[in-house]
Amino acid sequence: MTVEPARPAAPLSAPAPAPASASASAPRGAAVPAARPPGGRAAWLAWSVGASVYVLAVIHRTSLGVAGLDAADRFGIGASALSTFSILQVLVYAAMQIPVGLLVDRFGPRRVLLLGILLLSTGQLAFAFSSSFTPALASRAVLGCGDAMTFISVLRIAARWFPAAKNPFVAQLTGLAGMGGNLITTVVLAQALHSEGWTPTFAAIALLGVAVFALVALLLRESPVPAAPVRPVAKADRPGLRRQVLDCWREPGTRLGLWVHFTTQFPGNAFGLLWGMPYLVEAQGMSRAGAGGLLTLLVLSNMTFGFLFGRLLSATARARMPIVLTAIAATAGGWALVLAWPGGHPPTWLLVGIILVMGSNGPASLVGLDYARSRNPAERLGTASGIVNMGGFIGTMITLFGIGVLLDALTPEGAGAYSADAFRWAFCWQYVPLAVGTLMILRLRRRVMASES
Predict the structure, then answer these.
(1) pLDDT averaged per 10 residues, the chain (length 453)
(2) What DSSP assignment string belongs to 105-173?
(3) Nearest CA to 165 among 316, 32, 372, 48?
(4) Residues contacting residue 96 through CB under 8 Å, at least 6 positions apart
(5) Fewer CB under 10 Å: which end of the chain, C or N?
(6) DSSP per residue, 305-347
(7) Phi-psi category of residue 346: left, alpha or beta, with phi > 0 → left and psi -120 to 50 → alpha
């Protein structure tokens, strides 16, 4: 979301078939990958159980997106401090990607998912009862750590269960399932905050983890082949952690995947995670219900693009770069129109348009994982996916922080709300990471094409 570099005309690849002796080098207790992933009902069941954890993680991750104004009131903080919640959560998520990839490669996705659920639930429960800024900030860091363990694990399960040609589509379906969690946040959580209050709402989300933990513990098989006792792996037989990471990084496809993920994901992510609701309510004068409706539209657009891109990528690997560059150009052009509109108050149809365009951001970012999967061998798939998956969240963190700092700098002391003009200039910050990421994609694209020729 893996074989040696594929020829340009070849379909996207999943992990190479494991040799007969693969069990001899598998970690203790880990399931041995099947030589030929079977697909079918059992595969969809395994994926569904794993994806349920990712849905839960997205609910936790995006919960602050509809509670930003409530959090500012509860903790008595401004835009910079409010953005710190999401920045820290995303920073922890990004920092954990390589360690999580290594854990998945060594111990298997099932154990990592169970640990992730425990951390998600603990962090959200602490957040529910926090009444001051510092404990709440620490709880979001714990939540980010648990969130980091979900997506890569689900990708690894899919790679073991589904044939290679199916993997791009399943990866997009995983992202689509996550958007279902986002939809729950924007529709259900926003209403629950209004009717039930802060602590009951966030505590109820935390307790969802109990049911999902039981589901994974009882039903998840991470591989078609049941786990079997194997001899312990000699330390000398394992590649060192540093070597594993360096081997992934030296592969141009991994670096290209990281920059694709970085550049395509952050605009929609920053808008949905934190700044969308304040922008629509304070700068555009919309009601919370109207703003929630537009954020719901963002989720539905994301799901639609995820299905479309999954079909295209399953048909041909040549669709990868056109998808990426089109999503970048459309997002940059759409925001240029919105931000250049006189007075900083674009019409509703234009707001709807940019939100629909940003729906392509998340699905386009998953193309980066396709590059990593098709250019790395099976034994380092989790590590390569972790490196790539850092990209979009680093971009999100940079964007969240930049917008928050600029909003505070452009707003007079004592002002009750941020003006449309302040939001307009603050949102211009998006073009800095967008330009850097696009240049890196074009540069690394040539290297990948050269290595394939």
Answers:
(1) 40 39 39 56 92 93 80 83 81 87 88 96 93 91 92 89 83 86 82 86 92 94 61 51 84 92 93 87 88 86 89 86 96 96 91 95 90 82 85 89 89 78 93 96 87 63
(2) HHH-HHHHHHHHHHHHHHHHHHHHH--SHHHHHHHHHHHHHHHTTTHHHHHHHHHHHS-GGGHHHHHHH
(3) 316
(4) 144, 145, 148, 149
(5) C
(6) HHHHHHHHHHH-GGGHHHHHHHHHHHHHHHHHHHHHSGGG---
(7) beta
